[in-house]
Amino acid sequence: MAIEISRPVLKGAKALIVGVANKHSIAYGCAQAFHELGAELAITYINEKTRTYVEPLAKELKAPIFMPLDVGTPGMLEAVFERIDKEWGELNIVVHSIAYAPKDDLQGGLLNCSAEGFKLAMDVSCHSFVRIARLAAPLMKKGGTLFAMSYYGANKVVPNYNVMGPVKAALEACCRYLAYELGGKGIRVHAISPGPLKTRAASGLKDFEQLLNAAAQRAPLGELVDIMDVGFTCAYLATPFARRLSGETLYVDGGVNIMA
Question: Which of 100, 151, 152, 251 is catalytic?
Answer without folding.
Answer: 151
